[in-house]
Structure to design on (467 residues):
C-alpha cells in the first residue's frame, strides 16, 4: 500500500466529524508520524475524567465512559471506608505483637518479660527468734519462689550487722529433692527454693536485727528478709553495773556492792582481771552459795574506797572473768571465757579545805613579829579539834630550822565545822628567805593531814609587822 492509501481512513474520519460542524473548516491532516500501540488502562487506575491536553479536538470532546459510570450499590461511603481502615490497622498491630512460641517448646519472651522473687504462700518476710542465750546458735529457713517470665539468677545474699549469720540457698525439686544452689545459676520460673540461715549470738548482748539482702537480676531494690531477737548475756549484774561512789572525802570510808549471777543458774568461778584498780579501792569477790569446788551461781562484788583515796575525779574499769567457756570457732584456738565489766566512779576531795591554801608572811624586818590567819573548813562529817597535832618541815621533809620561831593555834567555831588557824612569827634573827610545810592532823590518824605551804623573806627594809 502506498502513502496515499495509508492515510485514507483518517481522512474519512475527519470528513465525518466536519459534517457535524457546518461553520468550521475541516482540520488539517496530521503529519505522517508513526505511533506505537497503547494498551488501554485498567478502570480503577484512572484518577480523573479530565481530557488529555495532547489529544485532538475531536478526542477532547468525547465523554469518558469511566467518569460517567455510577457507583456500585454495595460500595461503602468514604466515612465508613475510613473507619474500616482504622480497624484493620489496629487488628494488624495486635497481630504484630503476638510472639509465636519458640521451636522446641522453649519459654516465650516479650518486651515486658522479667524475673521476680516472691515469698512462698504463707511465708512471712520477718522472723523473730525471741529471747535466746548469748552464744546460742539459731536457725531459720525462708521459703521463696522464682516468678516472672525469665529465669532468676541470684548473685549475692548479704546479711547486715546484728549477729553473725551464714546463708545457704537450696533448690526444691517437684519430687521433694533438695540441691545446693550456686550464685548466678539460673532458676526456672515457678521453682521453689529455700534460704537457710544459721546465726550465732556469741558477741551480741541485747536486742539484735539482721537484714538479708538478696541481690539478683530482678528489677528494683534487693529483696529483703529480716531476722530479729534478743540475746540474753551469760552473766548479769544487779542492780547496776556501775559502782558509783559520788563525792567522797579523803577522810571517809565508802562501800558499794553489786551481785553478778549466771542467767542459766549454773555455778562458776569469778576472778579480778585488772589489779590496777586496787590502787584506788579494795575489791572483794564473795561467793554466795559455793559448792565443794568454790563455784557459785551468784557472787557479791564489794568495793571499798578510803580512807585517803587519791584526790580527784576517778573512773576505773573493774574487769571480771568467769570460768564459763565461750564457743571457739577455730579448733585448737586459745580458750576464752565469759566475763563482765563494771565501772567504778568517784570524786575524791580533801576532808578539809583551807582558804588561802598557804601561809605567806611577805617581807619582814629582822626581829619583827608577824601573824597570818587561814580559814579552815571541814568538808566531810568530821569536826575540827581544838588541839590538832602540828608539825613544820622543810621542803625536803626534814625538821624546819626555824620551827621554834613559829607558834600555831587552831580556834574552831562552836559547831566544829570551821576554824581559824593563826600562825605567829616571833621574829627572825637575820635576813634571808625561808619556807617549809605546815602539817595539821585534823582527823583520826588514818586520815592524811592537811598540808599548807609557809614562806616569807626577812630584809632590813621590811615593815615591822610583815606584808
Amino acid at each position: 500500500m502506498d502513502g496515499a492509501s495509508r492515510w485514507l481512513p483518517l481522512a474519512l474520519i475527519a470528513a465525518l466529524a466536519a459534517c457535524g460542524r457546518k461553520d468550521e473548516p475541516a482540520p488539517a491532516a496530521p503529519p505522517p508520524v508513526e505511533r506505537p500501540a497503547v494498551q488501554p488502562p485498567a478502570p480503577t487506575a484512572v484518577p480523573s475524567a479530565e481530557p488529555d491536553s495532547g489529544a485532538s479536538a475531536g478526542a477532547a470532546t468525547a465523554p469518558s465512559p469511566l467518569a460517567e459510570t455510577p457507583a456500585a450499590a454495595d460500595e461503602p461511603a468514604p466515612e465508613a471506608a475510613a473507619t474500616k481502615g482504622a480497624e484493620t490497622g489496629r487488628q494488624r498491630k495486635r497481630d504484630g505483637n503476638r510472639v509465636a512460641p519458640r521451636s522446641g517448646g522453649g519459654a516465650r519472651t516479650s518486651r515486658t518479660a522479667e524475673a521476680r522473687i516472691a515469698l512462698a504462700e504463707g511465708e512471712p518476710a520477718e522472723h523473730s527468734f525471741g529471747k535466746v542465750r548469748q552464744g546460742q546458735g539459731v536457725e531459720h529457713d525462708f521459703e521463696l519462689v522464682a516468678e516472672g517470665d525469665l529465669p532468676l539468677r541470684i548473685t549475692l545474699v548479704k546479711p547486715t550487722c546484728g549477729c553473725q549469720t551464714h546463708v545457704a540457698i537450696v533448690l526444691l525439686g517437684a519430687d521433694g529433692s533438695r540441691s545446693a544452689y550456686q550464685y548466678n545459676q539460673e532458676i526456672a520460673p515457678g521453682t521453689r527454693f529455700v534460704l537457710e540461715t544459721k546465726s550465732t549470738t556469741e558477741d551480741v548482748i541485747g536486742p539484735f536485727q539482721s537484714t538479708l539482702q538478696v541481690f539478683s537480676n530482678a528489677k528494683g531494690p534487693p529483696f529483703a528478709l529480716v531476722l530479729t531477737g534478743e540475746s540474753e548475756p551469760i552473766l548479769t549484774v544487779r542492780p547496776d553495773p556501775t559502782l558509783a561512789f559520788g563525792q567522797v572525802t579523803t577522810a571517809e570510808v565508802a562501800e558499794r556492792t553489786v551481785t553478778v549471777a549466771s542467767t542459766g543458774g549454773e555455778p562458776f568461778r569469778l576472778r579480778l582481771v585488772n589489779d590496777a584498780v586496787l590502787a584506788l579501792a579494795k575489791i572483794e569477790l564473795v561467793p554466795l552459795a559455793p559448792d565443794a569446788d568454790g563455784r557459785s551461781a551468784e557472787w557479791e562484788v564489794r568495793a571499798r574506797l578510803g580512807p585517803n583515796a587519791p584526790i580527784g575525779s576517778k573512773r576505773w574499769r573493774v574487769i571480771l572473768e568467769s570460768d564459763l567457756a565461750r564457743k571457739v570457732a577455730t579448733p585448737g584456738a586459745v580458750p576464752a571465757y565469759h566475763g563482765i565489766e563494771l565501772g567504778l566512779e568517784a570524786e575524791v576531795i580533801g576532808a578539809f579545805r583551807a582558804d588561802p591554801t598557804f601561809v605567806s608572811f611577805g617581807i619582814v624586818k629582822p626581829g619583827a613579829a608577824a601573824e597570818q590567819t587561814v580559814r579552815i573548813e571541814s568538808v566531810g562529817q568530821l569536826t575540827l579539834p581544838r588541839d590538832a597535832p602540828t608539825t613544820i618541815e622543810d621542803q625536803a621533809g626534814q625538821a624546819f630550822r626555824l620551827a621554834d620561831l613559829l607558834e600555831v593555834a587552831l580556834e574552831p567555831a562552836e559547831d566544829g565545822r570551821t576554824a581559824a588557824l593563826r600562825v605567829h612569827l616571833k621574829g627572825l634573827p637575820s635576813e634571808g628567805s625561808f619556807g617549809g610545810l605546815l602539817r595539821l592532823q585534823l582527823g583520826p590518824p588514818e586520815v592524811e593531814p592537811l598540808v599548807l605551804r609557809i614562806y616569807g623573806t626577812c630584809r632590813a627594809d621590811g615593815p615591822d609587822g610583815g606584808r
